[in-house]
Each structure stands twice: as structure tokens, then as C-alpha cells.
């Protein structure tokens, strides 16, 4: 249930019988030949598909995240960390104030991972109601990663692993073959300009595409893992 | 051209020939019987339709805004002002850093209006490239407001003026008749709880709906006015 | 009753019988030929005159506001928005902590208007006593604006409308005639340097002066409207 | 020259020949039987009298400072330190941006002293023009303190030392005798509530008043010392 | 070379010939039977031993980190994320301003990992000199983890892996046996109170101790891996 | 009792019988020929020696403080004031949350003194348990200063007064004689670059050294004064 396909009365009704909610968080950033919205589109879509049979509401994806190392590729938006943690704090505060007690933050972008630290801090905010918050990066969660690794161990930004029918750009032909792999150990130390120089098309390595059949298997694993989280990932209380 | 329907190379190409961009900003908040996403959906849609023939890229809507007075209606998200101005600052900084020089912020929510102050501050940030930024609240801009006023002077939150085919919620019947009008002079002083008590369904007054034909005329005026802004709203330099 | 003409014991006594207070907020900024303190002087004076017969205490005016677009005119001071909202928050917190329950912020400067958003947020701060806060820009409130419009529809920064005996500068001759009108739609997009280039004397348009008799009528309307607000502008509870 | 008695053109002219400016900072806080504005009134007045013969402009006093320990006395306003340092930073930035190169912050309130740390930080802000900033607490500067000590070594908040014709409140009779002295070593550890309990009238100790002749001598010393600072307190460069 | 065993002239000399520096970051937090300073002591010690033969200076450890989930165990100190990122930013700014161009942040505490995001942001700060920053969590870096895994795959907070002669507390007997393992997937969702209830002694699982010989092998691997980083972990430029 | 020589259980036990704790705060900054850690080393050492016989726990020294005026001397680290006050706030919050009710902040660096303002604000934070906090700059507290003044009234940064066996750097010869005294009244207005130009070795004036016997007398006075504070410096309640 997308929150944007609902009105407030429906959410109020839902809160009479359940207290779970999903907040997808993504990024607007270069993904090589793929959509600038890849991380946001996937986080939202995997959330919606996972939550659908459970009737859990899914907020609109937070489309902007932390991607300072990609800002030399036009179209990339990056929030400072000091900004990003306040956005997530505010959203958690609103949800808690309305009675949500189990919040799943479904993340589609590696650069957002530090916000998990803020979430742990938030859970311990003084004098507040007990609210559980899960932070789940869907694309490299154990079962999804295992599903992908059956095809290819190389799983890099902007490569086949993010190349779905719903992240491709109309009219753009994806290259065959594979991009050279950027040294991960050193990538964290590159400026955005250096990153663009090292990866002229934005792919950080590996094959550009796989068959839709293969991709569907990866996707199904991702959806199933998020759904399992929404069903069984909470603390018993 | 939606940024999410593009890859970064396409944006890079665009920047060779133009320097305009649109950032729609909305809100996730109660709209009575209508979608919780009304302000975000309309800001993004009016932006996309206006920009389409001009080829100007449109960022994904920032779906969360400032709506503290509606937080007692479940599903409403509100960022603190201190957070919101930093989000907008970061996005403007990214755009400026990539070569955009004319940015139109198309706003769909009255509560976001204070960010216009931040924009005026940002334009004057020290030591930076000259970047123009327009802040345009599409729904009450002069020509759009005039188009709406031909039908009804009562134009309130959650009423007919926001009731489009694309903001209604599937399966929800909209009442006929009109909601009682909340005293605007005093509404600013209401807490969220008091607001909900005064407006049990979230509509702040006036008729709930008009014909699709009437609404299309309002909508067309809104799109035309944003398009005119994108074409002629800039300072000559 | 100016707070600066009182000691704390008098304020403590007052709080035994009433819970209203006035916080005037102004700006230190260029006003063409008029005093750099125009907005502060007027906000404080209109507050003091309005509150006098009611016995409501008036704080000293906050003399600095948000005026980034005028900083190229020497003597203009501008606080960043992130600073300004914290100043107002702190003052509201102090007043609330001492038992004030109805606070009127009387504003003399258009650039301060965004703080109304902070006030709406503050009213909804969690876990706090219910405190009403009115934000009133005295110079363009309905009745005052109507009184001024009987004389001249052109009411711009630095023009006749702000030219009172108490905002003129000793020894400065005010020009006759009128300044050319700056295009309001585009003024919001000007940098401070551009603003100064477009308005060499700082007046944004219209006649520089009117007779003291005319001005007194405008002033009386302003005082009366603030007084009415202090008497009847509150929510019944 | 009060900035509020000037227009911007006069300040622009001044900057052609001089680059000094005075920013008085005070507090709105209990002062026993004396005005809640004592620290602000004195800081502004000593600045204006000192600067007058030199033609140096004096900004309006920043009337709100840091006084958390007095907030239990109604009428006391206190800014958080995080707020206060940003206000002062913004004002310094504005002045520097307009060409002022020697700024004297004349302080009237002990609780504001920590801002001297911010000033030292600001002087070292990266990449900026060299601007000198003096922070001078006029009331306990060496020569002024010496002048006062000739009369009485007890110089406490709310006592004779702050009791001038221009800080007394009309119609309020000041007690004869002396208030008991609060232990200074422990006063820093008192909450506002405890402070009020220990000092029921707000005076922290010592005689309540001296003759106007004595006070004039103290005052003259204060004015002279500020003037000397404005003339000779700067680094040679 | 500990910075605290040097004076500034020695650091100035060093900068004539090298531009590397080490900043150890730790935490003051419960470690079961072990010292509350375990993470700080180890981060500093591994840095000093690794840097010694290279002559690279090592700053004093930042002893406080982010550990909100352990605050129910007395003696645990935790900085908010908003604070912590500013501390690290300031330290990086100072180092960059003095000519350091290769900074290794050696981390001893898992909860500090989010600061890696700030570092990536900082590397891309606008208009600044190019400075490389490595963030290295020494205790689970590949070679150190491999060395430890030869002994035991269970490597949890407060267990054998942190139990060195230099993290034990004088006079405290460490239990034999092993603590029950806390479910890692769910641990992130525990409040500090729940954490203490689930782990009454603070160990999150596994054996409490191993022989000093085994521990020395782990330690040697940690030191060697940090040293290799300081020698070869940088980008060629 | 150093906290780093304890585990959490020992601190928990301590809290059953006492509620005092010591937080030493220092600085990493140039001290002429002496250790860059002088202020941190002394603050921690004086705390540990003073607290030892009382059994009061001493946290690890916060080694970084505010020293913007020394940043031109390599090895000096300086936190912005906005950062520093948040660090201290967080530490106080943690201590208060765990039951400490009497906190002594023992300061070793003049530039940190503004944090006393934050502490007074913190004591008055709303809605919190009553916690006493003393801020004590050990090196110029009355009795310690008196002990030093018996030897020499000149007591400046980087001179004899900070020259102990435990702040000297191995292998560094300290000059005989005395450094010229920097004008204190003007020193506050110097940039870091100017400071370094005026004080080429970093000593701000006076003799470089005295005999160990003299220094021990000063040190003993410092330890005794801190101990007296820990025993008798609190408010009776």
C-alpha cells in the first residue's frame, strides 16, 4: 500500500490494527548507462512489492541521499551527512508521533549506510516511546546477495546487478562486455573528479547486463527478503 | 524530461546547450479525502508537463516538506525548518556545482513558502558563481489563481482545487457539498491536535469537487504559467 | 509598558493577572534616505503605542533580521535563516518558561516573514505547554494596507510608506518625486550587488514622501490594528 | 553616531575615510530593582558617548544575551550559546563584507563573555580579509573597575554599580542598605530556581545605591576607557 | 612518534619531509570485564606501534565515540552523530591547514564506522587542497580478521578478541568459558536498557579469553596491517 | 581511579555509594619547547592525583580544545566552538543519564574557558535531574596561582609554569633566560599567522624554566586545590 495511493483516514484505520511502516531511501546519482534514479526506484519498488500482500504502508522514497563522490557526474544530488541524518530523524519522529512502532528503512544506496548509526542513536533517544527501526540495504542483504552471486561475483555500482527493465533508460543502448573493475580499497579515497576520470562511464566494474530471466531471480530474492524482514525481522516484545 | 528517465550522460549533454533545471517540492500530508501525496504529485506533474516541450530536466519531487500543523493526521510527514532549509541548500549547491545556472523551484505546498527566504540567502552566498533561482508556488500564482477564481473564490486545503483525477484515491468516494471554512486568520495559531479537532476530515473548507472539465482548465493554466516562467521568468544578463 | 522601563518584579506581578506579551522584530537595513533602523523603529513603536493602554509588556525590538539582498548597502545587517529561527525559538522558549501564554510577534520587515514557519513548528513542539503565538506584519496587515492604499497603491521599500517623522534622518533632505519601480517579480532573484545597481539610492519605487497628516492616518491604522490583535486576535480556549 | 540615526549613504561615506565600528551587546535580564534592560542600556550608552567625538558608528545594541541562570526571574531572556555565537558571527560577517576592518564589541553582561572565544575563532576564519575585533566588557575593564573600587570593592550584579539615573525604573524606590553577598564560587553552579531562592530580589550583593556624583565618576571612567580603546586599542598594521 | 611526545617544532620539521599523520579514534564504553577504554587503548596502541618505524606522527586518540546502545552500562560515553562528525571534520581541517596531505584514521570501535561517510564528504569539500584520508577499522581489517579467525570465528564485543594484557583491568578475574551470543541481526534494534538486560555482563558472546601467545599473533597482524596501510595504502598521484 | 583502569561493573558499584566524577579537558596545541599535549597531560594528571585518595573516577582527558590562534604552529588541533560545546554537552548528558550528580570539569587550557557558559546553560536544561557541574581551570585557580606567584608573576603560555618533568620532550633542550612578553591586551586580536610571527618559538613570555623543586611546590598546590574542590566545592543540598 503506497502512502501516496492512500488518504490519511486509511492510514488512521491501518494504525488501529497494525504499527508497521516502510520508508524506502534511495539516491539520485549516476548509474552509468542506467537511470539516475536507479537506487531510489529500486528501493521503492522492492518495498512496495514486498509490503503489498502484508498491507503495510510504504512511504514515498526519499530520493536524495549521500553521494559526494559522484557529484562530478551531472544529475547526481548529494546531501551532506549533517543534513541527511536530520531528515531521517524528522521522519522517524513523525512516524513515532503517529503511533507507528515498527519502522523498516529499506535502503537502495551504499552511501546511505552511515544513517544506520543515527537510527541506533534515535532508538535510544531519551524519554520516548519504544519504537523499533530496522535498516535494511536490500541489494546486498544475505539472501539477495547469494542469489546474485550464483550468476556473477562481480557486483558493482552501475553494472548488471542494477540493470533491470525498470532502471534502463528508454532509447539508451547498454554496452555488451564488462567495465574494468575499480579498486574498491582505494575508491573510498577518490574525489568526485578522480572518480569520473577513473570511470568515464560511471560503471565501477563488471558485466553491464544479464538476461531478464536472471535478473528476475535476483529481484524475486530481494522482494522475498524484504517481505521476510517485515514479517519476522522484529524483536518480540 | 524527468531526471529519473535519463542517465547522467544525457544530463551532461544537456548542460552543453542549456543551464535550466526544475526542482519540484511538495509535501506528504493529509489532504482530506485526497491522496496524502497531493502536493508532491501536483508539483511534480505540473513541472514535468511544463518542462516537456522545452526539454528542461525535472528532478524527482522532494516529497517531504514542512507541515507541523497536520501531524495529528496519520501519514503526514513534517521536516523541521532547520532541516528543510539544509536539504534545499544542498540540492542548490549540487546543481550549481554541476553547471546549472537557472533553477526553478516549483512548490506545491504553502507550508514550504519560508524556504524562499533561504533561497534569497543562497543567491547571495559569498564567493560563488551567479545562479538564478526562482521560487514559484504554482497553485496560487497569479494566472492559475485567476483561472480558479472564475469558478470559486473559496480555495482551501483539501478542497476542490486539489481534487484532480490524479490526486484522488482509488475506491474513495468524495463527499458532495462543501466543508465549513476554517478561519484563516486563526488557523496559524492552531496546534495539530486542535486542527484535527476543528477539521475532522482534514478539508479546510469549501466545495469538495468540481467537474473534470473545470479542473482541466485550472490545470492548463497552472502548466502554462510554469512554462512561461521557465521561458521568460529569468533575469536578462 | 516597555520591558526596559520595568524591573522583573513588575513583570512577575503582571503575570499574576495576564499572560500576553509583545515581541517586536525588525531589521537593520538600508531604507534609502531613511534611517537604517526604519523597520526596527517602526515595529517597536507600533507595538508600544498599541500595547500601552492594555498594559501589555513589550520586549525590546530584535533589531537584526534577514536581509541578504541588501547587504551591498553599508550598514545593513543580515542574519542567516538558520540563525534567525534559533533566536526566535529561544525567545519563545524563555517566554513560555516564565508563564506567558499569548505572544504577539510584531514584525516590521518583509524579509523576516519566513519565521512564521518556525512559529508554527514551535507551537507544535512536543511535550510543552500550550502557548499561542501570533505573527503580525503590521505594515501590510489588511486594515493598515487599506489605509495606505487610499493614498497610493505603490507601497515599496524605502518609499513614502516608511517615511515618518521618526524614521527620517536629521539633516537629510528627502527627494521630491518618485523612484522608478523595481520589478517585484524579478527582485527576488537579484543578488545584493545587482540590487544596489538597480536601485542606486535603495528605494524600490514610488513617491518618497507624503504629508505628515497622511502619514498619521496610516500610522493610526497600524496602531489600531495591532491593538485589536492584542485584544481579540487570540483563540478562545 | 548611532547607525539608527543614519542612512546607508552616510555609512558608505564614512567607509571612505574610516573602517571602525562599534557593536554593543547586552542582555535582557533581571537586575533587582533596576531595569530589565540595564546591561543593554549601559552597553549602548557607553558606546555612543565614547564614539561620539570620534564619529565612529554604533550599531543598535544586541539586546538579548546569555543568562540561563536568571530565567526564573520573569522578563529575563536568554539565548542558548549555540544561538548566540551564530548571531555574533553573522554580524561580524556582514560588517567585514562591507569593508569594516576594526570592530569593537562593547559588552555589558558577564554571561556574554564566552563569545570572546567565538571572536578569536572568527578572526582566524579561513580565506577571509583581515579584520580586527576587540571584545571589551566595559564595566570591569581595568580603569573603570579602578574608578569603582575607590568607592566600594563589592561590585555585584544588580547593585549600586549598575544603578544610574538611566537604569532606574520610574516609580520604583530602591532600598537603602545592602543585599547579602552570594558566594561567587558557588553561584556558577546554581540553577535559575535556586538563584531566585537565594537572591529573592535579584541583587547578588552589596549596597543598592550611591550618590549620582559618585556614579558619574564611574561612568566617566567607563566612557573614557571605551574611547581610548576605539582610538588606541588596535594592532598597528 | 606520538604527537604528545613531540613539540611543534618537531612536527614542523617532519612536515618538511613527509605529509602523513595518524588519528586514532576509539570509544569509552563498556567492554564486559575489560577496560572501559578498550577501543581507545587499542586504536592508539596499534597506531603507535605501526607508525613507530616509519616516523609518522600519531595524534592522541579521540577517546569518545558513538555508542548509544551501551549507555545503560555506567562509564560508557557516547557522542551524538551530529557532534561526532563535526569533531572529525575539525580535526581534518586543522591537519589539512597545516600541510598534512595523507591522513589515516585508525578506528577501534564499530559504532564509529558511519564517520567514514563524513570523510568521503570531506574529501570532496569545495575549493580545498587535495588531501587523502583513509578510514581503517583495524580489528576487522582483512588480514587481522583472518589471523583471528584461525583461532575462533566468534569475534564479538567484549570477548577474547579484545582481551589483551593491556586491556585487562588490574585485579579483575576474567571468567573462563564463553558468553552466549547475542543475535547480531537483532542487536541493532535494541535499546541500551534492553542490551543490558540481554547481556548482563556486557560481553556480546563467545569465549572470554585466549592465551597470550594467540593474542600476540592477532596483535602482530593488526600492527602489520596498519603499517602496510601507512606505507602502501595511498593513491599514487 | 582512572575510568580506563576500570570496567563498567566497577563504575556501577561506585555509583551505589558516590555520585562524583571528574572530566579533564585539555588541548593539543603548541607549547613552545614543551609537549604539544601539555594542557591535556596536566589536566589529566592533576585530576588523577587529586581524585586518587577519594576514589572518584576520572575520565580520559578530552585532548582537543579550542585554540584557533595557535593553528599556524603545526600539531595544534582546534575544535570550533560550535563543535566543542556539543562534545561537552554530550558527555554531561551521558554522565547525568547514568546517575552522576556532581561533575567536576578540570580544565587545562585557557581557550576552553568559554565552555563554562555552556555548562551554566546545561545546568538549567529543562526537565532534567539536578546535576551539579564545577568548571575549574586548575592552573590559575586562586591557591595554585598564589603558589606560582611566589616564584614569578610572569605566568605565560609555554613558559616555566607549564614546564614539568612530565611535559618536557625527550631530547629537547629548553633555553635558559626568558622569552619576551607578548602584549596580552592585544594578543586576543592576533591571527594565528601573526601570533607565530610575534612568538617564533611559541612561548608567550617569561622564563623558560625553574627548578624541579619549585615546580613541585606549584604542582602540589594544584593537586591540593583540585582535591579540595572535589571534597568541598559542591553545593549543600
UniProtKB/TrEMBL annotation, chains A, B, C, D, E, F:
One of its GO terms (biological process) is riboflavin biosynthetic process. Pfam families: Creatininase. Keywords: Hydrolase, Metal-binding, Zinc. Its cofactor is Zn(2+). The keyword Transmembrane helix does not apply. GO terms for molecular function: hydrolase activity, acting on carbon-nitrogen (but not peptide) bonds, in linear amides; metal ion binding. Transmembrane segments: none annotated. Gene3D superfamilies: Creatininase. Belongs to the creatininase superfamily. This is Creatinine amidohydrolase. It comes from Nonomuraea jiangxiensis.
Amino acid at each position: 500500500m503506497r502512502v501516496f495511493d492512500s488518504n490519511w483516514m486509511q492510514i488512521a484505520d491501518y494504525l488501529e490494527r497494525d504499527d508497521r511502516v516502510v520508508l524506502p531511501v534511495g539516491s539520485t546519482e549516476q548509474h552509468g548507462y542506467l537511470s539516475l534514479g536507479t537506487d531510489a526506484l529500486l528501493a521503492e519498488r522492492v518495498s512496495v512489492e514486498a509490503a503489498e500482500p502484508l498491507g503495510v504502508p510504504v512511504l514515498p522514497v526519499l530520493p536524495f541521499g549521500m553521494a559526494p563522490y559522484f557529484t562530478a557526474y551531472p544529475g547526481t544530488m548529494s546531501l551532506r551527512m549533517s543534513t541527511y541524518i536530520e531528515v531521517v530523524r524528522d521522519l522517524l519522529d513523525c512516524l513515532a508521533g503517529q503511533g507507528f512502532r515498527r519502522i523498516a528503512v529499506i535502503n537502495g544506496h551504499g552511501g546511505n549506510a552511515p544513517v544506520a548509526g543515527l537510527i541506533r542513536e534515535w532508538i535510544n533517544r531519551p524519554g520516548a516511546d519504544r519504537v523499533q527501526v530496522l535498516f535494511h540495504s536490500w541489494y546486498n542483504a544475505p539472501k539477495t546477495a547469494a542469489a546474485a552471486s550464483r550468476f556473477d561475483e562481480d557486483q558493482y555500482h552501475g553494472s548488471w546487478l542494477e540493470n533491470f527493465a525498470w532502471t534502463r533508460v528508454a532509447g539508451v543502448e547498454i554496452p555488451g562486455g564488462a567495465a574494468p573493475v575499480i579498486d574498491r580499497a582505494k575508491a573510498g579515497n577518490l574525489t568526485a573528479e578522480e572518480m569520473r576520470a577513473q570511470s568515464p562511464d560511471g560503471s565501477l566494474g563488471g558485466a553491464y547486463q544479464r538476461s531478464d530471466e536472471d535478473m528476475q531471480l535476483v529481484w524475486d530474492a530481494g522482494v522475498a527478503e524484504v517481505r521476510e524482514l517485515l514479517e519476522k525481522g522484529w524483536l518480540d516484545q
